[in-house]
Amino acid sequence: MLSKEILVKNSGWVELPQISDERDGVLNIMEVGKNIPFDIKRVYYINHLENCVSERGKHAHKALEQVIFCINGSFVLTLDDGEKQQDILMNRSNQGVILGVNLWHTMHDFSSGCVLLVVASDVYRESDYIRDYDEFKQYVENS
């Protein structure tokens, strides 16, 4: 079931201010210290997700924090903190979800033209990833 309230641990909503412009379009503003809860060291986006049965993510992080946005289209973000799971419909360009530590996340059910934008607290380090769900469960239980 899709929900607006985030119930899992190590997560929450980020809402970016939007300014409508008489010249057309909407400006979304992202600022460290105001609506992003960490210094941004990496930005990446995922696009060309034309296959609605694709899945992305399917991992957790030990130390990295991220905020994920859907800047075009929609997708379902599944969060799992080791105790609770939750599906969140991502379809507003100014609303992001914090992907904190020890939080398994999967993105799926992409609409045509979907574009995801992610800001991260650190550079890529493979050693920070937990890619096996059973290992994730054990890691969370021992944390």
TrEMBL record:
Residue span, Sugar 3,4-ketoisomerase QdtA cupin domain: 10-140
Transmembrane feature ranges: none
Name of one Pfam family that matches: FdtA
SUPFAM superfamilies: RmlC-like cupins
Protein name according to UniProt: FdtA/QdtA family cupin domain-containing protein
Organism of provenance: Lentisphaera profundi
